[in-house]
Design a protein that fits this description.
Helix content is 45%, strand content 15%. It is an alpha/beta fold. The chain has a 7-stranded mixed β-sheet, with helices on both faces. The protein has a two-stranded antiparallel sheet with strand order 7-8. α2 crosses α6 (127-135). Pfam families: Acyltransferase.
Length: 278
C-alpha cells in the first residue's frame, strides 16, 4: 500500500510537467497518438477478421470509422471542399501531399469507398498496425527493389480496373513539413497512364499552425482539405508522364499555398517564377 502515495506523486508530477512544458506536452500527445494507433489496430483487426474473414478493401470502412474518432481527442477539425469529386464510382489514382504522422487522420476523414493505399514494405512488420493495413488491402512496395515494385504496380493497375478500385498515393515519397511541396516521384502517374484512369489531386493545408515537430507544438487546429478536379489520362502514354507530373505538381502547390494559413518557411513565393517539379 505504501507504493500508492509514490505512484500518485509521480503521476501528479508528470501532469504538472505536461502542463508547464510545451515539449513535454508535445511528446505526451505524440506518445498517446502512437498508443492509440496500436490499440485501435489491434481491436479493429479482430473486428475485420470476424466481419469479413481476412484481407479485403471492405475493411477500410471499419478502419476509417475508428481513426476518425481521434480528431475529437485532439481538437482537430477538417474542412473538406469538393469531396464529391472523390465519390464518383470509377477507378482512379488519388495523390495528396504528405506532412506528418497525423496524415492518417486526414486520409481517413475523406477516404472514399473501395480505396486502397500504397505503403512501404517496412510498415507491414509494425505489429498490429501492419496487420490492420494488410487486412485493409494496402499494397506494400519494397522500395529497395525496383523490379519488385514495378511488378506490384503492374498488378495493381490491372486490379484497379477489374475491381473498380481507387488507389491513394503520396507522390512526394516521404513526409515533408518544410512549408512547401517536394518534387513528385513518377510512380503514381505511370500507374494512372498505364491503367488509363484519371488522377484526382487532394491537397491538405499546412499543419504548422498547430503541429510542428521543431517547435514541439501540438495543439487543436483546423485543416482545410481541397479536392481538385480530376486530371484525365485517356490516350496518354508513358512519354506524357513528365508533363503530367508537372501539371499536377503546379496545381497542388498553388492550392497548398493558397489554403495554408502560414507562408512556407523556405522563402519561396507563389507566382510565375515558381520552378516546376523535377
Amino acid at each position: 500500500m505504501e507504493l500508492w502515495p509514490c505512484a500518485a506523486a509521480a503521476l501528479l508530477g508528470l501532469l504538472l510537467l505536461v502542463r508547464l512544458s510545451r515539449a513535454a506536452e508535445f511528446y505526451a500527445k505524440v506518445g498517446l497518438y502512437c498508443a492509440l494507433c496500436f490499440a485501435m489496430s489491434a481491436a479493429a483487426s479482430l473486428v475485420c477478421l470476424l466481419r469479413h474473414g481476412g484481407r479485403t478493401v471492405e475493411n477500410m470502412s471499419i478502419i476509417s470509422r475508428c481513426v476518425r474518432s481521434f480528431k475529437y481527442l485532439y481538437g482537430l477539425r477538417f474542412e473538406v471542399r469538393e469531396q464529391h469529386r472523390l465519390r464518383e464510382a470509377r477507378p482512379c489514382v488519388i495523390v495528396s501531399n504528405h506532412q506528418s504522422i497525423l496524415d492518417m487522420m486526414g486520409l481517413m476523414e475523406v477516404l472514399p469507398e473501395r480505396c486502397v493505399q500504397i505503403a512501404k514494405r517496412e510498415l507491414l512488420f509494425l505489429g498490429p498496425v501492419g496487420l490492420i493495413m494488410y487486412l485493409g488491402g494496402v499494397f506494400f512496395i519494397n522500395r529497395q527493389r525496383s523490379s519488385t515494385a514495378r511488378t506490384v504496380m503492374a498488378e495493381l493497375g490491372e486490379r484497379m480496373v477489374r475491381e473498380n478500385l481507387k488507389v491513394w498515393i503520396y507522390p512526394e515519397g516521404t513526409r515533408n513539413d518544410n512549408g512547401d511541396l517536394l518534387p513528385f516521384k513518377k510512380g503514381a502517374f505511370y500507374l494512372a497512364v498505364q491503367a488509363q484512369v484519371p488522377i484526382v489531386p487532394v491537397v491538405y493545408s499546412s499543419f504548422s499552425s498547430f503541429y510542428d515537430t521543431k517547435k514541439k507544438l501540438f495543439i487543436s487546429g483546423t485543416v482545410t482539405v481541397q479536392v481538385l478536379e480530376a486530371i484525365p489520362t485517356l490516350g496518354l502514354t508513358d512519354a506524357d508522364v513528365p508533363a503530367l507530373v508537372d501539371t499536377c505538381h503546379r496545381a497542388m502547390r498553388t492550392t497548398f499555398l493558397h489554403i495554408s494559413k502560414n507562408p512556407q518557411e523556405n522563402g519561396a513565393t507563389e507566382g510565375p517564377g515558381v520552378q516546376p517539379a523535377q
